[in-house]
Amino acid sequence: MNLEVLYKQFSGNDSFKTPEDRKSVYLESLEKMYPGILCSIGQCMEVKLTGDPYEDEGFHTTEMRKSDYPWWIVTTSVGDEGAIALFYPGAMERLAMVLGESYYVGCAGDDRAILIGESFMSLERFQNLCQRKYQGKGYFYNAETGIFSLAQGN
Q1: pLDDT of 13-44, one tens digit each?
Q2: Pseudo-torsion of CA 139, 11, 13, 96, nearest 10°?
Q3: Which of 31, 57, 67, 141 has the most CB within a 10 Å radius?
Q4: Residue 130 and residue 138: Cα distance in Å, rounded?
Q5: Could you tell me if 128 and 121 are in contact, meaning their C-beta atoms sit under 8 angstroms apart?
């Protein structure tokens, strides 16, 4: 499933481009039941291998641990269709604050979204990665404008 379909299914909205577009009472309710999680790729792999629960739940209130790898995972406490946590109210803005910059988003399935800070990867390299791993689609969140859209060159 791609992010557009997942978003429409859970939010009832057609567009996710601007903060105003991303408002949804359905997502507010969903967040209360299934808090969003921001973790390093290392922590995500550890959880998948051991079956242990995530240490950090609710990325609006917790601090991000330092990682040597500049890729981060967004999911929910249950993991299934966890990529929807990216669209929780204020989540994109909070994630930009935590990462300290605009970021790219890849999504190979619906259980998680991968975030990569803009300073760690060029647009061209991200687009190549998307062709290989993320069904040819990648997204970009611009922290200055609040716009979330397909990652494309000018």
Answers
A1: 777 777 777 777 778 888 888 888 887 777 77
A2: -30
A3: 141
A4: 6
A5: no
In this prediction the pTM is 0.81
Record the tokens describing residue 69, joined without a space.
């790898």
Question: Which residue numbers in the chain have pLDDT < 50?
Answer: 1, 57-58, 154
**SS3 state at 144:** coil
Q: Which of 76, 80, 77, 87 is nearest to 111 (CA)?
A: 80
Helix axes 25-33, 3-11, angle to 10 degrees: 100
* Alpha-carbon dihedral sign for residues 72, 57, 148, 13: positive
What is the maximum alpha-carbon separation in the chain? 43
